[in-house]
Amino acid sequence: MPHAFSRRLEAGPLLCDGAMGTMLYARGVSPDACFDVLNRNAPKLVQAVHADYIAAGADCLETNTFGANRFKLAIHGLDGEVRDLNLRGVRLARDVREAAGRDVFVLGSVGPLGKYLAPLGTVAADAARAAFREQAEALLEGGVDAFVVETFSDLAEIALAIEAIRAITDMPIVAQMAFTDEGVTFTGRTPAEVARTLAALGVQAVGANCSVGSSTLCEVLERMAPAAGGLPLSVQPNAGLPSRIGERLIYLSSPAYMADYAGRMVDAG
């Protein structure tokens, strides 16, 4: 029997939340801080962001776990806390959903490891797969409704993440890669190639996120659609590229601009 998230995907478009790190930064958290440890150290702050997104109309909440893998946490001396921080991240989102009293899906956010795979870097495939599995097991234990693997620039790395999740569950997976302003990934893969590759890995939706804003990702979406094999498409653009104004990083795209492109993206599938 299909999972509830998959059934809802078939019924029509879903509106996801937006950035977590940007919102925490706007609330005074240092951009150099470990956002994931806030699941333990400042849970009410994380929950306030979740609650604001639900109030704005989001159908999905992503857990505050984008960097909660052993490699990224090791930078902050927290690589032994993968399970705890991911469990807490799911619990925070689930508690906010319960308080909201309406149907909202909790998606377990899994980002890249922050280190290059061999031979370009030093991380072996088995070590990467183990790290992704460790995080996925904790998110699954916490009770996510689906996974979102996002902001990957390397098809080989996102494939390892998907394989690690598939080794433990048939839970729905939304797979998203980041693209440059030339409309290719940072390793030169085209939207069509990305869509075909991801669709073959047994995910429930393919798409793009972050990157350089709505106009570029709308074009990426249109180029993905014919190659996606009929899978739902997911797109979560940045509000353009940030500009530095004094000591702050500001995104200059307006809500109206993003809303206009959201409508275009729905029309594109």
What does this structure look like?
It is a single chain. The chain has 269 residues and is an alpha/beta fold. Helix 9 crosses helix 10 (214-224) and helix 10 (214-224) packs parallel to helix 11 (255-267). The model has no long low-confidence stretch (mean pLDDT 94). The relative contact order is 0.10. The protein has eleven helices and eight strands. Strand 2, helix 7 (125-142) and strand 3 form a beta-alpha-beta unit.
- Structural class designation: alpha/beta
Oligomer: single chain
Q: Could you tell me how far the N terminus lies from the C terminus, measured between alpha carbons in angstroms?
A: 25 Å
Q: Largest beta sheet, briefly?
A: 6 strands, parallel
The coarse overall form would be globular
Order of helices and strands: HHHHEHHEHEHEHEHEEEH
Number of helices: 11
Strand element count: 8
Order of strands across the widest beta sheet? 1-2-3-4-5-6
Low-confidence stretches: none
Strand content: 5-15%
Mean model confidence by pLDDT: 94
Proportion in helices: 40-55%
Query: What is the CA-atom radius of gyration, in angstroms?
Result: 17 Å
